[in-house]
Amino acid sequence: MTTPPLSPRHESLLRLVLAAGAPVQPGALEQSLQASRPTVNRALRDLLASGFLERLGSGRSTRYVVTDVGKATLGALPSATPTSAGPGLLQWSPAALPLVETLRAPLGTRTPTGYESSFADNYIPNQSSLLPPQLATDLFNAGRGRDQQPAGTYAREVLEQLLIDLSWSSSRLEGNNKSLLDTKELFELGEQAGPLDEDTLMLLNHKSAIEFMVDAVPIEGITVPVIVDLQAKLMRDLMKDSRDIGSMRRRVVNIDGSVYSPSNIPTLLEETLKSIIDKVRNIRNPVEAAFFLWVNVAYLQPFADGNKRTSRLSANMPLLLHNCAPLSFLDVERTDYATAMLGVYEQRNVAAAVELFEFIYRRSIQKYSVLRASLTVPDPLRARYRQALNELMQFVVFYGRTLEDALPAVHVDATDLTALRVIANTELDHLEPYNCARYNLARSKTQKWIDDGRPR
Question: Is the pLDDT score of 249 beyond 60?
Fold first, then answer.
């Protein structure tokens, strides 16, 4: 059967449901699509009729997931593989194009340049601004979470998806060949997934570094030791000289495809990094702080390797402290990312970096606001079967029974069985030692079940 073409609204809705990474309620889609509930419901009915979506549950507990047909259709669209000219993806504005064109010139025609300390030194927090001030304000208002919540709450609520998104996208920008699905499977299996080649280590290191950051920053704040520890986790087992892990650079570093040569003086690198962090801590707008930290760590190149990785993860620190949507760097091409960085490296011009940052952060805000809403909207089905879910977790994790064997042992209406099975499998996928207490499970028993491969 030939599937009908997708309209822009239908495509946007389908991508949002897929991006959420979990079954989504209709109410969670309204804000991101900026459409009324009847409009959203009509689009959902169309996608259901076309076979692109599947409905789980009924009534107030209705959720939607993308079918294999829907995934295949999205994969065949031009925007599935991001390019700078793809519809709805990053396109340089007329203001940035002159810079972009100069950076495309042959290396031999570009003027060699070194590190200019004035780029960071002349920046005065809350007076200077690398982002256009109104853009920084708009992005903060769009990405901010609910007030009166502890630092890091937003990031923790979407952590499982963030670990996959940010680890994969950041590694991909370094040339990693693992797919997004490979990454998800790797994180589910851990080191049992197979040989620990360089691509696998890079992804596992990202996961470890992000988990460290989400735990450490709300307690310790943004500090030089936290940045250094972040680089150490990112580069574990990936550098020949272990002395280069978690320490200031002591040797020359070359930037591929650039005429920029960073400073090689360890004391200057350390002092400048401290100055950058001090400024970041005093910037009131966390989005401006994120951008400032991202471009300045990359420009300084304080470490022997892993600088771009460290800068991308570090950019999340101010956002995390202020409960803003995280920055996952999804849907950006390596060439566009390199162009944005080269503008900073060679000309200390942030025009391209601003446009790339706005593009990726708006997409991050959209994705995680939908995901967060789908997780926080009260689920009547979960409430109704609260005790049944608790018993299912006990049967599977503590007693070692399969989920199919355990389901008949709890009271479930036949009409709710399929939806409850999906919920139980999702909970088992997401069960970790730090969240197992909600099902009255011991950490040690839960860890053993995870180590055994999450049998169910």
Answer: yes
**Which amino acid, residue 282?**
N
Helix (H) or strand (E) holding 114: strand 113-114
pTM of the model: 0.70
Ramachandran category for residue 382: left, alpha or beta (phi over 0 → left; psi -120 to 50 → alpha): alpha
Q: What is the C-alpha to C-alpha distance for residues 292 and 278, in angstroms, rounded to an integer?
A: 12
Q: Dihedral (C-alpha) 125, 126, 132, 133: value to the nearest 10 degrees?
A: 160
Tell me the C-alpha distance between 234 and 307, whole Å. 10
Q: How many residues does the chain have?
A: 456
CB atoms within 10 A of CB 77: 16
Of 236-240, 375-379, 421-425, 435-439, the poorest mean pLDDT is in: 375-379
Predicted confidence at residue 68, as pLDDT, reads 83
The pLDDT confidence band at residue 81, using thresholds 50, 70 and 90, is very low
Mean pLDDT across the stretch 83-107? 78
The tokens for 281 are: 């801590």
Cα pseudo-dihedral 363, 364, 366, 368, rounded to 10? 160
Q: Up-side HSE of residue 96: CA atoms within 13 Å toward CB?
A: 18
Q: Is 116 left (phi over 0), alpha (psi -120 to 50) or beta?
A: beta
Hey, what amino acid is at 171? S
* Cα–Cα distance measured from residue 428 to residue 259, given in angstroms and rounded to the nearest whole number: 51
CATH of domain 97-375: 1.10.3290.10
For helices 159-172 and 351-376, the axis angle rounded to 10 degrees is 150
Domain map (residue ranges) of the chain? 8-80, 97-375, 380-451
Q: What pLDDT, on the 0 to 100 scale, is given for residue 73?
A: 79
Q: What is the DSSP letter of 395?
A: I
Position 23 confidence tier, pLDDT thresholds 50, 70, 90: confident
Residue 34 banded pLDDT, cuts 50, 70, 90: low
DSSP E strands, 161-235: none
Give the containing element (helix H, strand E) for 260: strand 260-261
Average pLDDT over residues 8-24: 78
Say which DSSP state 24 is in.
B
At 324, is the secondary structure helix, strand, or coil? strand
Q: Six-digit token pair at 150?
A: 């502890």
Give residue-wise pLDDT tens across range 336-353: 999 999 999 999 999 999
Architecture of the domain spanning 8-80: Orthogonal Bundle (1.10)
Beta strands in 2-77 (DSSP E): 53-56, 63-66
Same fold, 8-80 and 97-375: no
